[in-house]
Protein 1
Amino acid sequence: MGPVHVIGGGLAGCEAAWQLARRGLPVLLHEMRPARSTEAHKTGQLAELVCSNSFRSDDVRHNAVGLLHEEMRRLGSLIMATADAHKLPAGGALAVDRDGFAAAVERAIVGHPLITVRREPVDLLPPPSWGQCIVATGPLTSAALAGSIAALTGESQLAFFDAIAPIVHRESIDMDTAWFQSRYDKAGPGGTGADYINCPLSREHYDAFIDALLAAEKADFKDWERSTPYFEGCLPIEVMAERGRETLAFGPMKPVGLTDPRTGRRPYAVVQLRQDNALGTLFNMVGFQTKLRHAEQVRVFRMIPGLQEAQFARLGGIHRNTFINSPRLLDRRLRLRAAPHLRFAGQITGVEGYVESAAIGWLAGWLTAVEALGSNAPPPPRETAHGALLAHITGDADAETFQPMNVNFGLFPPIETGIRGRDRKAAMADRALQALERWRKEVVPA
């Protein structure tokens, strides 16, 4: 058996390579640095942390990323074990010594007898003659390889920037104020004619919202992002508002075709939210991509009637990023439908965050090993953090509006009603770990 090729030596690529090797499969890990660097990387080390040194919350029972930490520990994750070994004081978060962390991951990878690291760029997607391959090249995928991906999948299936609108947890929307309706009650494919949640604004609400939006503090682009273009079809809402106070009322906040059932009248403006996952637990703020700072987004968007207590699964942003439309392109085992010898892993699949990237790397490595060893063992169940992430990027997310996402409890199957807040999160975390343990017992041979 020839080696499994892993392209990309970041967190996802290193995790995938490690999971393959620990199951007895030879690995050839391709990393273009230091021969070719990126605008964000500073070294040629494997698993370099290019932004924060934080892996975020380590709260297992009340935070989805903390739950993901625990699952990764139980699944033998190299990235998580190394993070734990190099942690720094950070309250309830898991922060690491970035240099010590990267050096330790590199030592483990280079020192494994079944892993060979080749320092060279891969500019074309590997052909089937290479055998099983995992593409884990991250948000800064080289232009040449991105072009190869686009040529195989179609230009429209590969994004080079994020134009992200906030996503709200459905249960936090005040439905005493908001209501379900599509414009003119029109039912689209699979719809009912009441497919959007509508939050009404009076003229006074609208004016106050515009004033706050124009005054709010914006986030700066990083130096290497400054050439990121704005596209007319997805301008930040604050940029639209700067073009004129009524621009939003005639754009993403237009109220035409909508009637507030409580007043029987059309509001002055409306913020619409569209279902964003198959479970119906997450709703996307339509047309609300933004570069406001995160704290400002929370403050300003909670001025919208119906969203005064909104809890956000994801806040908005616009920045350079390369990712594929995974719900459309990947099957449930992370294989590219157009070329099943290729799996994708890490941020290029549309997950956000160090831990999420490494978790998808774990899944890609494990799924590849299972296939190579002739097993058809199922992936982790959807009740787990790993299973919820996998389900989201391989079909649960809406392919038409797909954008990168951190792990959050809105991706998990709902739990019994009547449990809310921290108790609900704890119940979902307990359910996840129980499901993980049952699954581990079933797939021990794999």
Protein 2
Amino acid sequence: MTWIALASAVGMYGLMLLTVWAFQEKLIYAPTRTVFTDPRKAYGLDFEDLELVTQDGVRIRAWYTPAENPRAVLLFCHGNGGNLAHRVDVIKGYRDLGLSSLLFDYRGYGRSEGKPSEQGTYLDAQAAWKFLVEERGIDSGRIILIGRSLGGPIAAHIAAKHQPAGLSLEAAATSAVEAGQQMFPFLPVSLLLRHRYDTVAWLQKVTCPVMISHGIRDRVIRFSHGKRLYELAREPKRFLELHGDHLEAHLDGTPDYPEALSRFVDDCVGNGQDQIAEDVSDRMRL
């Protein structure tokens, strides 16, 4: 290789590093703005269309869907793509299990204001938690946090700072750095990435029961991430191996998942139906 060719290769590599550093948000976040359906349109489910205000003054949108005599309330932190409209099947699945749910869009997603960032998504989840505990008066011991994919570290962050009934991490990475390094082994990801999403760091501070679930054919976040999170989580904990790829493992053809989630809820909250049902009937606004 001539000196000119070598200099050209080094220059192109440097340009690649600069591009990844400058546009990394485009790689991490994939929001869409159009909210094309909702639980009522899709499944005839009554729900509340909420506007929550975060600690830094950003207005985000959320859907609260109550179940009749619910065993628990699930606070769901979704993945990096789409918006709430892409999660109506998730809401329906929780409703079928007799569980109320609160789903929210991160800033910059759907009809939420702002632009997504790591700290911003943490503040968005905190606003959702605050709504359930302070505005609805739901006992934190009746709330189970669920984080799917990018939502994993976000849910773990809330669980580390509060005391929910349980935490379920679904197809979550140990950290954005480790996931990125596997996707781009030729790049110094740890030096480039500003958004760390260190699930491990938050999980090690979590004291509530934990369930980790991961698809063995996950090509986006490798199965080894789920196993590593399980190894590092405190007891009581459980691991669910699913036969599917990334998010599909929790959606299509996985009857083990809803059954395992239902058992996890029972173990975490026992019988809490009466209190939650009273909260919903007293405070429901349609």
Protein 3
Amino acid sequence: MATVGEGIGGVGTAPPKRLRRERPGKVAILRAAVTVMGEDGYEGASMRDMANRAGVSVAALYYHFPSKHDLLLEFLDEAYDVILRRVDRRLLGAGPSAGERLDELVGTLIASYVHDDYAQLASTVALREFTRLEPAARQAIDSKRFLILDRVVDVVREGVESGEFTVERPAEVAFAIVGLCASIIEPWEQLARPMSEVIELYQGFARSLVGAPRRDG
């Protein structure tokens, strides 16, 4: 079908170009592979299954990722970087009170975990399969996971120092809040509730954990 501005058989009409299917890049291959891991688990996901899902040869997959372990490590390394950048960006725009900052943290973590189908699968892989990493690789990923936890610890301690929060063990409570946010991933589909509603509910849970009043409205 001709579009506006195109000639049909007229002078200057370019010959039709043959459509060429672009090969998926490394990011698309990684995304497909993580989807397979999310569906079948790390042990159940084969490199062949991942290549098939990505629409590439097994050789092409190995070209980018020499092993399944390397694939998992690269995914986790990038995934936690993305979440950490998002958390820091949202904290910069959060309100001045510790309660507002805690709400922002909870909302950002939950939205990061379940904002679409791929995010849910990727979050499942990140939280379930990081133990598959070899010790040195796991240590590197753990350091990034702890950076996210540190952001929550800092906000809880701010609230304690300002008198907004009444907990005696900020680090332990922060750990519980991070776990609370992650707990939404598995039952998400069964909840069948709008994300905004779930986030508000979990923000209330987090405020209860730190001994702060629930947000008005």
